[in-house]
Amino acid sequence: VLTVTGPTVIIPLLRHIRPRKRIAAVAKWEGIVIDPVGAVLAVLVFQAILADNATDALSSTLVSLLMTVGVGLGLAFVFGKAMETMLRRHLIPDFLHGTVILGAAVAAFTLSNVIQHESGLVTVTALGIYLANRKGLSVKHVIEFKENLRVLLIAVLFIVLAARIDLADFASLGWRAAIFLVVLIALIRPASVLISTMRTNLSKEERLFLCTLAPRGIVAAAVTSLFAIELVKKAEEGAISARLGEQAEQLVPIIFLVIIGTVAFYGFVAGIVARRLKLAVENPQGILFAGVSDWVVEAGRLLEDEECQVLVVDTNYEKLADARMAGLSTQRASIVSEYAVEEMDLAGLGRLIALTPNDEVNSLGCQEFRQEFGTANVFQLTPRDKESSHRVSASDHLRGRFPFSDAPTYDQIEELIARGATVKKSAITENFKITEFRDRYGDDAIILFVIDKDGNADVFLDDSKLGDAAKLISLVFEDDSKAPTTPAEETKSSRTGNE
């Protein structure tokens, strides 16, 4: 049972730590695939315990394994094909997709368990993998429904299972349980990772990170509770020894001790290790620019000078070449492509700014990355139809937040650039405050980013953060008549346009 790590605890941790894409995928898929494996192993061991001799144990185990895999994969294919056909032919109303697929999963799980004991987890896992990987079949809205349902049901299930335990049960475990937990974390997990990743292309840092990420979750608790009840029942019936029945009563408190201990340990350690190994960034503040223009390149370069990570994504190779020449990281891709959402390495990035000339693409990009960055951290240039009637303009919930001072549109920024506006970085000092900045550049200046005294860069939305501003990155018109009289107040670089 304790081979499982479980996506119910792994995925929330990965969302919090946000390691690099490849190692995150390894950890996530380990959690998904290992759940049914752990449950099946528990079934095989349970049947071996009930066998009369070693020969019977071996034969029953092999038969059970083949039956479990066969039934699980067979039913997964049948139910998956049926669901795929119904979805492709639009036989299920959109608002019922989540409910119908949930019903199908429950039916497949139940039928599988009726045919072969505890094969249901194999069935529903394979069913999910099948549906998620069918080309041209989108189940994203089903996944969103599942996420909400998972949070609710798992919270309730943990309470119900934990209610069976008395605090005295933990005390009865003694010091051996603590040693067991330490061995599990310090020896078993590192050994399993190092052995199973031999001759793979994972780096030493990635393997070490995996050694510090193996929290147990609801599957371990649920499966253990089931088998503890079965073993106690078998002991009462005389099928197994009374001593084994007494030990079975300790299974549930031991598992909950492991769950609490591993979640607490890995939850605290994994993030620290990932950051030390440079596989993740604490509180990622990097910016993903969707769309590239000359002013975007200059703004990105100035942000990188302030140690704010920048990634520029566009489909235009020639425009990306300018960004690469400026030293920026680039990816040639559409911001709404499957590659951008599923495969692009977003380590260190925490915000999206969609800057393409197409307002609909900007809105779709924000929709796609809301789950990754959160609603508060997805931005798009103000759409051209923002001031239009509600009959013709897109709904607000379909768009990201509107960045920069005065919330300019793409056309407005391009017009300013055509008139000679340039991107500048201004230091805010005792001698050159926000009022002097506004006096110098006037109402035409568009503040893009605010860098506070700690060096953190933020997208400008309103004046509330200007009190802590140490530097501003803005789109301005040069006006030498209002330039500061003291050289120390602002320094200008003719090559980069810095002030």
What does this 3D model show about the protein?
The structure is a single chain. With 499 residues, this protein is an alpha/beta fold. It has 18 helices and nine strands. It has helices at 7-17, 21-50, 54-88, 97-115, 120-132, 140-162, 167-173, 175-196, 204-211, 218-237, 242-248, 251-276, 294-305, 317-325, 338-342, 359-373, 410-418, 434-441; strands at residues 286-290, 310-314, 329-332, 349-354, 378-380, 422-427, 446-452, 457-459, 469-476. The strands form two sheets. Strands 3-2-1-4-5 form a five-stranded parallel beta sheet, with helices on both faces. It has a four-stranded antiparallel beta sheet with strand order 6-9-7-8, covered by helices on one side. Helix 2 (21-50) runs parallel beside helix 10 (218-237), helix 3 runs antiparallel to helix 4 and helix 10 (218-237) packs antiparallel against helix 12 (251-276). The longest helix has 35 residues, at 54-88. The chain is elongated and about 90 Å long. The protein starts with 6 loop residues before the first helix and ends in a 23-residue tail after the last strand.
